[in-house]
């Protein structure tokens, strides 16, 4: 993925962003033709490797492609927003689009069928933890016959992540005056994504005076 140095986050920040989102466009290639699906995934890092696990329906073309192996891509995106040149404090600006994205790449293999239950347990536990203190749901709450049928209908896939590329385009190269002006403009937009980008920009230069209006509060990732 192309990203100028000014927009390239630290490796750990990119990994944390992908793990926090846990949802992306999974892309494979079938004889030169791209095949893709939007899928939730679980990202886990050990001393040996960073791995992303997910699953697809057996009818999904990705299932057959996973059996062949090969390198795949997971494109993870966050908020994005258009910026009008009229919003800058300085002149001679052009329209642009601000965004956050991370791409994970590496070889894939099919998760053996006997490990499908473990895969589902770990995936559900990861997402259910977001809703604590709610008692977590798990697959044991499904009737055994239906649970077995569902597990037979999916294919678990694991990617060994060998490349992590991040691009956080948040006007890092602009002046403080332009930063404040754009944050204020984005924070006034009706689109929640625009307000999220405003909060992300403000978090990068918290010493500046952004009011009025104050952007939404941004909660930084654990690694930032």
Structure description:
- The structure is a single chain.
- Strands 1, 2, 3, 4, 5, 6, 7 and 8 form an 8-stranded antiparallel beta sheet that branches.
- This protein has helices at 11-21, 61-68, 116-128, 144-152, 176-187, 192-204, and strands spanning 23-30, 33-40, 42-45, 50-57, 71-83, 96-110, 154-161, 163-169.
- It has 224 residues and is of the alpha+beta class.
- The protein is elongated.
- α5 runs antiparallel to α6.
- The protein has one domain (5-174): Electron Transport, Fmn-binding Protein, Chain A (Pnp Oxidase, Chain A, Roll).
- A hairpin with a 4-residue loop joins β3 (42-45) and β4.
Name the overall outline: elongated
Which architecture would the CATH scheme give at its second level?
Answer: Roll
Helix proportion range: 25-40%
Supply the helix-strand structural class: alpha+beta
* CA(first)-CA(last) distance: 22 Å
Please report the total strand number as a whole number: 8
β-strand percent reads 25-35%
* Main sheet properties: 8 strands, antiparallel
Overall tally of structural domains: 1
> What's the level 1 CATH class?
Mainly Beta
What's the mean pLDDT score? 92
Low-confidence parts, pLDDT < 50 over ≥5 residues? none
Q: CATH homologous superfamily - what is it? A: Electron Transport, Fmn-binding Protein, Chain A
- What would you report as the Rg, rounded to the nearest angstrom? 20 Å
Element order: H for helix, E for strand: HEEEEHEEHHEEHH
The CATH topology label is: Pnp Oxidase, Chain A
Give the helix tally: 6
């Amino acid at each position: 993925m192309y990203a100028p140095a000014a927009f390239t986050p630290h490796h750990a920040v990119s990994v944390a962003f992908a793990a926090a989102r846990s949802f992306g466009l999974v892309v494979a290639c079938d004889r030169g033709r791209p095949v893709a699906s939007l899928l939730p995934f679980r990202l886990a890092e050990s001393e040996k490797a960073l791995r992303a696990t997910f699953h697809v329906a057996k009818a999904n073309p990705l299932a057959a492609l996973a059996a062949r192996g090969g390198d795949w891509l997971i494109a993870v995106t966050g908020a994005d927003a258009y910026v009008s040149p009229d919003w800058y404090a300085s002149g001679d600006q052009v329209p642009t689009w601000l965004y956050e994205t991370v791409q994970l790449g590496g070889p894939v293999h099919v998760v053996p069928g006997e490990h499908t239950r473990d895969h589902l347990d770990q995936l559900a536990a990861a997402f259910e933890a977001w809703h604590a203190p709610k008692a977590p749901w798990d697959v044991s709450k499904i009737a055994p016959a239906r649970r077995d049928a569902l597990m037979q209908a999916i294919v678990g896939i694991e990617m060994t992540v060998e490349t992590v590329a991040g691009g956080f385009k948040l006007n890092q190269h602009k002046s403080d005056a332009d930063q404040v002006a754009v944050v204020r403009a984005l924070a006034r937009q009706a689109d929640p994504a625009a307000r999220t980008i405003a909060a992300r920009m403000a978090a990068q230069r918290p010493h500046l005076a952004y009011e009025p209006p104050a952007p939404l509060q941004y909660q930084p990732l654990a690694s930032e």
